[in-house]
Amino acid sequence: MRFNLEENTDLTPCSHFNMPKETNVKRIAFLIAFLLLIASPPAQASDATRQESAQALECDRRCAATVGKAYFALERLRNEAEDLILLFDEDAVPAFVKAKGLKYIVGPYYGWRGCDKGCGVLVRLSKHEGRWVIEGSALKGTQPEPGAHYVYRMYVTGGKDLPATVKRDIVDADNGDPLQWNSHPAGDFATGQCYVESVISTEVSKTGRPVFRIPKGMPCGKLTGK
After folding, report:
1. What is the pLDDT of residues 3-32, one digit of tens each?
2. Beta bridge partner(s), residue 166
3. d(C-alpha 142, C-alpha 59), whole Å
């Protein structure tokens, strides 16, 4: 069979289906629009992802700040001990741990507000290279990999800066043990306990290092009005 191009001048794709040109163009335009829609993620999803990333980074910042402020509270404790002619050094920390002293430095006396509740910040004391460190991690912070969180840390008794590290399986022990991950003050900030007295006892020390006690406390909300 031979085609006469002069007789078959309509070379529009699919013209042999006897489809009107206007309908054919509309369908092609619809198909292109549909393909673009499924190929590109919704703008709202991208905005939500960026917002989550920004919030996680902000929680990392708040966690690092929490650790820094806890360190300064411990520094005040160390200075207080020196004024009493006592040593708050590496050998004094085990007694501080036994007394669960970390939770007792929350409040106006040592100037530490405690953990950032909104970011799920947890802190604990642990050993690094034979020295005591205070560590903090934000449950809502950046996760470098599933189940892992960044940990910010500083030496309890002073020294060089420590880089952040990554640890897994960080959960709130909710038991006040300074060797386990906890949020201080426990529970809600308004009803949690803030302390208004020294954690150092007036008891005479036989070791030249502080003897620790439970200081007077009250709900943090009463101190801050929140």
Report:
1. 343 444 444 444 443 444 555 666 666 666
2. 150
3. 8
